[in-house]
Amino acid sequence: MIAVAVIGFAPWAEAGDATVSNSAKAPTERVAQAGFVPTWLMKATLYHGGAKGVGNRDSLGCRTVPMRTLAVDPTVIPRRTIVFIAETVGLPLPNGGKHDGYWYASDTGGAIKGKRIDLFTGEGSRSMKGAGGLNLKKITVVKAGAFKGCPKQ
User: Fold this and answer.
1) pLDDT tens digit string along 105-144?
2) Are strands 31-49 and 2-6 parallel, antiparallel or unpaired?
3) Radius of gyration of the chain (CA)
4) CA separation (Å) from 29 to 2, 7, 86, 129?
5) What is the tens place of the pLDDT at every residue in 37-83?
6) Do the Cβ atoms of 31 and 4 come closer than 8 Å?
7) Distance CA 11, CA 33 (A)
8) DSSP type of residue 24
9) CA distance 75 to 70
10) Global pTM?
11) Backbone phi and psi for residue 54, each to the nearest 5 degrees, phi listed first
12) CA proximity to 127, closest of 53, 63, 65
């Protein structure tokens, strides 16, 4: 694990949803000098709704959110953690916007063990196209906070 402090916000979270501080700084400016925030170098895979064994609910019982739901090994990254993945900043979102790099660790998977994550891209294999340019062999995951309830749709 690498020690880094991240101070930022999740613009899609409502008050009380996340325990991250509110800041108007760009994601690359959110790295602070002091404190300790867990950071992991991981391998990633993509998954989509409609694939064998993939439903429309995560392991918390919440609806999966395209380009926000993250499957993790809960012994490495606890469920209900908000993470920042710099490599995903700027990826296309289903609503036409650009990704801000924040993901909800709300799902698990049988093949997700150790330092491996699975990014939910949406419904159908075509949803994976927008994330196709990611280097899935080396993803930097930084803990940015925690959330209560279900991720925002």
Assistant:
1) 999 988 899 999 999 999 999 999 988 889 999 999 999 9
2) antiparallel
3) 14
4) 18, 9, 11, 29
5) 789 999 999 999 887 778 789 999 999 999 999 999 999 999 999 99
6) yes
7) 23
8) -
9) 14
10) 0.76
11) -105, 120
12) 65
